[in-house]
Amino acid sequence: MPKIASGLRGKPENVTLGLTGFRPLSWLAVILLAGLLQAFPAGANPVQTPHVQAHLVSEVVAVRPGQPFWVALRLNMRDGWHTYWRNPGDSGLATTIDWTLPEGFTASEIHWPYPERIPVGPLMNFGYHGEVWLLVQIQSSATLTEAESLTLQAHAQWLVCEEDCIPEEGVLRLTLPVGVESAPLDPRWSEGFAATRRALPQPNPWPASFHVTADALTLELNAGPSAGNIVDLTFFPAEDGDIDHAAPQTVQRDGSTVRLTAARGAGSALPEPLTGVFVLQERLDDGEPAVHAFTLAASLAEPATPLAYPVLAESLLLALLGGVLLNLMPCVFPVLSLKALGLARHAHESPGVVRAHGLAYTAGVLVCFALVAGALIALRAAGEQIGWGFQLQSPMFVALLAYFMFALALSLSGVFEIGGRLMGVGGHWADRPGYSGSFATGALAVVVATPCTAPFMGAALGFALTQPWSISLTVFLALGLGLALPYLLLSFSPALLRFLPRPGPWLERGKQLLAFPLYATAAWLVWVLSQQAGPDGVAAALAGMILIAFAIWLAQTVRAAGRGWRLTGRVGAAVALVLALGLTRLPNTDLEPAHAAASPSSAVAWEPFSPARLAELQAAGRPVFVNFTAAWCITCLVNERVALSSARVAMELANREIVALKADWTHRDPVITTALAAFGRGGVPLYLLYSPQAAEPVILPQILTEALVLQNLQTL
Amino acid sequence: MSKATTMPRAIVALTGVATLTLALYGGLAQAAPTVGQPAPDFTVTDSNGVSQQLSAQRGSTVILEWTNHDCPFVRKHYDTDNMQALQNDAKAQDIVWWSVISSAPGKQGYVSPAEANALTASRNAAPAAVLLDTDGKVGRLYGARTTPHMYIIDPEGTLVYMGGIDDNPSANPADVKTAKNYVRVALAAMENGQAVEPASTRPYGCSVKY
Prior knowledge:
The complex is a heterodimer. Chain A has 17 helices and 24 strands. Chain A starts with about 25 loop residues before the first helix and ends with a helix. The relative contact order of chain A is 0.08. Residues about 1-30, about 30-40, about 305-310, about 420-430 and about 590-600 of chain A have low confidence and may be disordered. By secondary structure, chain B is of the alpha/beta class. Chain B folds into 2 domains: about 1-30; about 30-205, Glutaredoxin (3-Layer(aba) Sandwich). Chain B starts with 6 loop residues before the first helix and ends with a strand. Residues about 1-30 of chain B have low confidence and may be disordered.
């Protein structure tokens, strides 16, 4: 931790006494000297003691009647020696100042710059090395005449320690003239005052809370988007016994929340609020490190439940159920239908083969889920404000997915066969004998599933994202298992398999038919792009799709041609593919978040969501409906189409004067991510209905119907 | 969020290191005993070469005084005869007073057995024994962090007080007279069969020179 006002540090020039330990005579001399100084008005300034040069300095050159001004007790310590902060830590003593002031003057408490941690063997002290300025504000009397000069007398006592400790003191006197004019600042000290002010703790800008376990205290700061910049955090408690001063403090970041954990101190009861100072090191956008200190007053939070097993078990169950239901969502359904066709082909083969396919498919789902969850967890740990479906917030990813769906659809339509070494996710996975095809289908199911949210998923994933990575991953894998479960069960149950129709020409027709949902998916993704990257993005994606179609056609055409043509054709196809990929480098435009995302025909007058607007409306006693949505969230779009944009809902909203706010998460938006997190959610949709009578909103289900929405609105 | 790429490593490394140190950390406060709980037992050799065991004193009140004769805060209480008076009062009440020196060899306050006895004689001190905790084991066991740092254990072996000697954290000998002596307060409460209040205070003084 950088020292206070490090640029100011200077060696006291006239420290010549070589005392390294306590000597009774010098101590007596100090006391005697202090007594003398108090007895005689001629106090010294600065005062030189064996280990410290103390200096009382004023920021102004003259005192204005009735005006406050700042003075500082400036302590220059011998190299390696330190003095103490207001909570000195395990041992030591805070510096004190007793003032003798002119009639009508008052002095403030000491304003302490933030301290540093000073280890002494197994103990820990909080204090200062080198040089420190302790600021005090003096309020002057209003009845001063210009002829006067004033003397401020400070009896300062400090304990100065290296490893051994020496109590020292000095009586410092500072005489200032009275000036009626605006008093100029003393240029000798202005830099020192400025540097010290930068080291004074400022009011904490973030919500803070703490909770305790038997042996640890955890401090939680909700630093919002700033959390990503925080690289280190140190807590200095105001009171003894709150934490074990010497214990290392661990800092963890989880999205916008920064947690500091320290071993508990010997104090049996913790104060509420917990007070002190925290010092954080920040890395600014330009890479420059910066240090800030803030005063803390944290309230006691409900005990954290990082490992509450009932909650964990419930979340795992919800995730599993959500995964199963995800199979019925429009995103995954086409892919699963394809898989079902494949199953129908294998169904009447040996049960062992069918089972192996089921397992390969499950493995594909789980591996892909682990990858997506891993990326999500890692990025959140890095401070990114993201949640479920985060990859769809990237136009590049959306464009690539559109290409992929389009190519897949072309393959199903019979335009080409993805085979040979390009196998895996190809059109023939459904009838490939290899298990890699089944594995790839599993992975594909996950990729296409992300735009959808099934019931139960929101709560499970919201829980997962607040947990340590191992638990997050477990919940994600439970969701994956749920997704794979129906097919897995089917492949393990010969009885069920008998219900599947025998393979025949209908299989080929069915496959061709299923190309159309995939074309539709591609078209929808292009529409998402229109929200994210504007008309240019749409043009780029469509051009890319044409290039892909061209590449496929070219590669197919030259298959039977001579060697030269075949090479030329393949190079041409490759070039077209590269160009298509190059077109996905779309600028993530600064388009206004698409307020039209819901539906152009919406009769509801949506206002953009912001926490400030919500607070304002609540303060005004207005009921509020908040719709957390995204253009790429199919579940959200369906809800908006089916329930939220109906004329009856719009009328109900208008009649009851409910303000409708829309939080559009199509683009990455830390504010919305934080708002979602406040409700334990890591993704959209989320629907909140705030009644003026209740502090907490009603949370509506993730799958809406018109009747359900109306029924809720009517409860207001 | 352009710094995302550089941040994770820093944080992961930081958290890792911190967790590791926390895991390896055998802290003082974690070992610190709790008032109202049995005081941790120990055996340590005194300045006369006698092995002293806390549990052997069951039936008597025991006072532990962490000390370092060169510490200004300790001197404050010895130069004013405050500590000696307490020790003599304790002796009169059949209370076992053990002065504990946890200074490591070479550190301030470390003394040989002979020097310890000479100090006791020269200061007219009256401890039942001076325990030479040279390796700091007892000090760490009790979470002793300052000199002086006081502990009172009742005849049942329960820790009933730990903390400062009085309520005026200063090095000024003149303050002894006006300060409220927590050890006297505790002994008076025990004498009257009352609960010790305050039972835990902030100790003040020099750090123990482990």
